[in-house]
Amino acid sequence: xxxxxxxxxxxxxxxxxxxxxxxxxxxxxxxxxxxxxxxxxxxxxxxxxxxxxxxxxxxxxxxxxxxxxxxxxxxxxxxxxxxxxxxxxxxxxxxxxxxxxxxxxxxxxxxxxxxxxxxxxxxxxxxxxxxxxxxxxxxxxxxxxxxxxxxxxxxxxxxxxxxxxxxxxxxxxxxxxxxxxxxxxxxxxxxxxxxxxxxxxxxxxxxxxxxxxxxxxxxxxxxxxxxxxxxxxxxxxxxxxxxxxxxxxxxxxxxxxxxxxxxxxxxxxxxxxxxxxxxxxxxxxxxxxxxxxxxxxxxxxxxxxxxxxxxxxxxxxxxxxxxxxxxxxxxxxxxxxxxxxxxxxxxxxxxxxxxxxxxxxxxxxxxxxxxxxxxxxxxxxxxxxxxxxxxxxxxxxxxxxxxxxxxxxxxxxxxxxxxxxxxxxxxxxxxxxxxxxxxxxxxxxxxxxxxxxxxxxxxxxxxxxxxxxxxxxxxxxxxxxxxxxxxxxxxxxxxxxxxxxxxxxxxxxxxxxxxxxxxxxxxxxxxxxxxxxxxxxxxxxxxxxxxxxxxxxxxxxxxxxxxxxxxxxxxxxxxxxxxxxxxxxxxxxxxxxxxxxxxxxxxxxxxxxxxxxxxxxxxxxxxxx
Amino acid sequence: xxxxxxxxxxxxxxxxxxxxxxxxxxxxxxxxxxxxxxxxxxxxxxxxxxxxxxxxxxxxxxxxxxxxxxxxxxxxxxxxxxxxxxxxxxxxxxxxxxxxxxxxxxxxxxxxxxxxxxxxxxxxxxxxxxxxxxxxxxxxxxxxxxxxxxxxxxxxxxxxxxxxxxxxxx
Lengths: 625, 170
Known about the structure:
Largest sheet of chain A: 6 strands, parallel
Low-confidence stretches of chain B: none
Largest interface: A-B, 56 and 51 residues
Shape of chain B: globular
Number of helices of chain A: 23
Strand order of the largest sheet of chain B: 2-3-1-4-5-6
Helix content of chain A: 25-40%
Structural class of chain B: alpha/beta
CATH class of the largest domain in chain A: Alpha Beta
CATH topology of the largest domain in chain A: Rossmann fold
Oligomer: heterodimer
Largest sheet of chain B: 6 strands, mixed
Radius of gyration of chain B: 15 Å
Number of domains of chain B: 1
Number of domains of chain A: 4
Structural class of chain A: alpha/beta
Strand content of chain B: 15-25%
Distance between the termini of chain B: 22 Å
CATH architecture of chain B: 3-Layer(aba) Sandwich
Shape of chain A: globular
Low-confidence stretches of chain A: 1-20
Helix content of chain B: 25-40%
């Protein structure tokens, strides 16, 4: 049985036909959110993958397929498109949702802020997953601050179970006040698993009804002012909702100190109190499920008996900024430096902080270890071959790159910049212009971008580069999947839609439509031929003829959707090996390791037999067996 | 049953996530509360990964430093990466030929001998700790979960044999 199937196994066999009985299942926080959407009548959801949010859409699609649920659950080309597609469904009265990682919300910021003013008819949830740490992100930004900026209420779950439960409350809130509602899980919720009570999906009973009202749906600035006043009134009413106040979790006489907590750090605090009676006897704990907007009156009243109040939240002082100066208490938290200003609030950080706050001795921490082995491109990864060829074709160049597995090309010296989705293309153009306008010698620019990232944000900058005559090489690393986040489909694949109604859009068609005049496609495994294509592209760019695009096409070896040929060739290192270490340091294939005599050897169980290393070794010491 | 906190440390691709999920599903099958935390994203490409699994009445998905009851190291080098898993009362098992400080199981070699794949070391190690009685669940319970969770008959056969090879060592 598929692993995915197991998770729904119990419901299908034991709960069939029974719409009230709940079943326990192990769900990841992301799966729990997906389950919550299905159980609460969501009929359209859209997403773009990004750690830690990726599994929400994957799970939603799996569950819908297994239970024949009519929800439309789509991977969109990027977060802005996902947001707007799902929002339209909510305009028509349906329950909709959009999910993304926190930096994805930056991409969708435009519709997000505007839709707060305009509002919705059907319930609309924005699930934006934060990554304190950061573990897999460019920033530690707090999506709750984005919610404040947009003036949208935000719920902050403290466990996978609560993430699922909050979906119902979020939809109710969204529909009562006709406003988008954000759910903000963090990595430790998204990627935690828990036994969770599940119900069958809600029966879908929805007929679209778009009420024409240009003053609202197409509001001009004059009407926007009215909408802004309306939004402020909505927020004032929402702040009197029961979710907006503090809920006592550890109270009783003799406590003069209180902590107010929200999100997974609340779970860390609850456990600290359960583990440590001395601490629990001194400290009152209040939980907050909706950190914005807060009910100031309720906080004033609940916190009045306490001498000092500590605010515990990740990552920005969202509750703290709302309460500061308005509830008659000195607050400790982020702003006064009580908590560290960056990094994850682990259970150890929380525990030590709570002990310190109540004046108890702080235990010595077991120091964390070394950072450990760095991640690396897989043995036989086609990106490695493509990077090696790029550096050979454009030696001494600048290599802007982008977001994906291939950022690991940095281990090879093939990635000089990584800013955000799509930036490789625009930055390549900026670098090309800069060196052309002001440089003293020609500077080759070799940009790399993955297939999914190209669709997401690489197309507008490519058109921009063509129209401004920026000359550089753009290598599109096409492995036929969104690899880093778990092999989600791209628009080049039938399964991107999966219904049979859509048509694929190939990368080459998109590149040609951008006006690019040099386009070649090759397989990086055919190393010499591929290098030849890149050299032609380099010559084209050097002559100042505009961007030259090479698509390096070879399936991701981790992708179970693509054919993975049997290993047919075996390689060995001969006595010619000079132990120069080049293959390990700059090529970095995990199947090539140092043997006891200092020479290299090939780990047969890791080697996939691609043979690309035979072209890399300067002494020609790797040969087919 | 006493609550149990288990740390699992390894490298991306070693199947840390898979055995964490086997244990979580087994706990569910036994009617126990379970919370776990996993590494996803870039680190899964061969980097150091860690899972936390907590069986019993817990709130946080993470184990505080030094408080694991059991720590499984699928990669010996990770002893230096995740030393904070180990406290005074932690039982530590390392996938290694031998280790000066901790209980060692040469799971990679045994996997190679028993099923011809070093990558099955995760199930050998799981079999070993199950057989030793270090876990909240019996070998039988875990074996049943492996049957349900192994995708196809060939993989199931490999997983079962690797698990049994680990049991035999215990």
